[in-house]
Write a sequence for this structure.
C-alpha cells in the first residue's frame, strides 16, 4: 500500500491528479455600475457523486490497499466572487473562491485508507488581471490579458498542462477534481482570430507533504479556423524534489476537421534533462456523421515511454500537470486512468462512439486496449494490462443541473494480475452517478 501511495503522489512533476474540468460557472449579479463598467457576481458550484463497484483492484483491494474500496461517496462545493471594472483603455478583473470536498468511505485511489478525516476547505481562485481589447492593429480582434495569482490554466487538450492542484487523501473528492488552480502564477496572453501567444509561470497546490513544483514556458498557436490549428509549447519544469534537475519539455500538436466530417489530431512531446530522455505522443482519426443522433466515430493510439532499466537514463514519460478535457483525455479509462495508472509507461488503443439522441443528452461507448511499454520497470513480467469498456451518459437537465452516469468494466491481463500480487483475480466493475448544480 505504501508503494502504491508513493506511485500516485509522485506521478506528476507538478503534483496534479484530478478528473473534472472546472465548469464555466453561471453567475448571479450582486452589483453593477454601468457608468464605470463595474460589476460584482457571485458564483456557486455544488457536486455530489456516488460510486458503486465490484471487485475493485480485481478483488484484491483488501490485500493490496488495506481496505475494501468498492463503495464510497463524494461531495464538493465551490462558492466564489468575480469582479471587473474599467481601468484605462482596458478592464480590471479578479476572482476569488474556496473549495470544500469530503469523501465518505474509502475510494479506489487508496489515498483515503487509514485516514480519520477526509474533508477539507481550501482557497481555490484568488487572482487579479487586466484585459485590453483590440490591443494590436496588426492582429484582427486581438485581446491582451495578464493575470496574476491563483488561476486556472490549460494548454491544448490538457495532455501537459490543465490541473494545478491535488485532490483526494485528507482533502477528499478525488474524482470530483474541483481543485485545479495554479498558485503564485502569472499568465500573459495575446489572442486574436489567427494567433495565440502565451507566456506563463505556474506553481502547483499539492496535498500536505506533496511535491511543490513550478514551470516556466511559452505557448504559440495558429488557428486556420475554429476547428483547425497548429501549435507548439516549450516549458522548463522543476519538481523541486531532492536530486532532480530542471526538465526541458517541447510539444507540437495539430488538429484538423474537414467539412466532410473527417478529422485528424495529434501531439508529440519530448522531455529531456541530464537524467531524463522520454517521449509521449498520440494520433487520432475521427468521423462526425450527419443524420440522426449525430454519431461521431474515432480511434486514438497513444504511446508514453516507460523506463528501460538497462540504461542509466530514465526514459519514463513524466506527466506534468495533465487534466480532463474530454472522456479519455487525459485520464485513460474510468477505472485504469482514474485509479490504477498514470500515462507514463502506458500504450493504449481507444475505440469510441459518441451519440447525441437529443440536444441535452450525450452517450459515449469506449473500448480501451492497454499495454505497458516497459513492464519490468513496473515490477511485472507481462506487458498486458488488460481491456476496459466504458459507457457514459451526460444529461443537461436544465441550465443549472446536469447528471452524468458511468458504467465501466476492466478485464485484467497478466500484467495487472501480477501487479496486485498474483493469485485469483476478478474483473473490476465500476459504476458512478454524478450530479452537479451551478447557480
Amino acid at each position: 500500500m505504501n508503494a502504491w501511495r508513493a506511485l500516485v503522489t509522485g506521478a506528476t512533476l507538478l503534483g496534479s491528479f484530478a478528473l473534472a474540468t472546472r465548469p464555466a460557472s453561471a453567475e448571479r449579479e450582486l452589483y453593477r455600475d454601468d457608468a464605470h463598467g463595474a460589476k460584482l457576481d457571485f458564483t456557486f458550484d455544488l457536486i455530489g457523486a456516488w460510486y458503486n463497484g465490484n471487485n475493485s483492484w480485481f478483488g484484491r483491494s483488501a490485500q493490496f490497499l488495506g481496505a475494501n474500496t468498492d463503495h464510497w461517496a463524494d461531495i464538493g462545493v465551490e462558492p466564489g466572487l468575480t469582479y471587473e471594472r474599467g481601468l484605462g483603455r482596458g478592464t480590471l478583473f479578479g476572482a476569488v473562491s474556496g473549495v470544500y470536498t469530503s469523501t465518505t468511505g474509502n475510494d479506489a485511489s487508496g489515498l483515503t485508507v487509514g485516514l480519520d478525516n477526509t474533508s477539507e476547505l481550501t482557497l481555490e481562485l484568488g487572482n487579479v488581471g487586466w484585459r485590453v481589447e483590440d490591443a494590436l492593429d496588426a492582429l484582427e480582434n486581438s485581446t491582451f490579458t495578464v493575470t496574476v495569482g491563483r488561476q486556472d490554466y490549460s494548454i491544448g487538450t490538457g495532455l501537459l498542462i490543465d490541473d494545478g492542484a491535488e485532490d483526494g487523501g485528507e482533502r477528499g473528492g478525488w474524482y470530483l477534481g474541483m481543485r485545479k488552480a495554479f498558485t503564485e502564477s502569472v499568465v500573459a496572453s495575446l489572442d486574436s482570430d489567427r494567433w495565440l501567444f502565451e507566456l506563463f509561470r505556474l506553481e502547483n497546490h499539492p496535498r500536505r507533504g506533496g511535491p511543490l513544483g513550478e514551470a516556466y514556458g511559452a505557448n504559440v498557436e495558429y488557428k486556420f479556423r475554429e476547428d483547425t490549428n497548429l501549435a507548439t509549447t516549450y516549458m522548463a519544469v522543476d519538481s523541486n524534489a531532492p536530486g532532480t534537475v530542471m526538465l526541458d519539455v517541447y510539444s507540437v500538436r495539430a488538429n484538423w476537421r474537414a467539412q466532410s466530417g473527417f478529422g485528424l489530431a495529434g501531439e508529440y512531446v519530448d522531455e529531456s534533462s541530464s537524467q531524463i530522455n522520454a517521449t509521449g505522443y498520440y494520433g487520432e482519426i475521427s468521423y462526425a456523421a450527419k443524420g440522426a443522433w449525430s454519431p461521431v466515430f474515432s480511434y486514438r493510439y497513444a504511446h508514453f515511454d516507460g523506463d528501460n532499466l538497462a540504461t542509466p537514463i530514465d526514459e519514463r514519460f513524466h506527466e506534468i500537470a495533465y487534466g480532463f478535457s474530454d472522456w479519455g483525455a487525459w485520464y485513460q479509462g474510468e477505472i485504469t486512468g482514474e485509479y490504477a495508472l498514470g500515462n507514463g509507461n502506458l500504450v493504449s488503443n481507444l475505440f469510441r462512439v459518441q451519440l447525441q439522441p437529443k440536444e441535452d443528452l450525450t452517450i459515449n461507448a469506449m473500448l480501451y486496449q492497454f499495454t505497458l511499454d516497459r513492464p519490468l520497470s513496473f515490477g511485472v513480467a507481462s506487458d498486458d494490462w488488460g481491456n476496459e469498456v466504458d459507457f457514459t451518459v451526460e444529461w443537461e437537465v436544465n441550465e443549472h443541473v446536469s447528471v452524468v452516469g458511468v458504467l465501466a468494466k476492466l478485464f485484467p491481463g497478466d500484467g495487472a494480475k501480477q501487479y496486485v500480487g498474483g493469485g485469483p483475480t476478478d474483473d473490476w466493475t465500476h459504476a458512478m452517478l454524478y450530479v452537479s448544480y451551478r447557480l
In short: The CA atoms of residues 62 and 68 lie 5 Å apart.
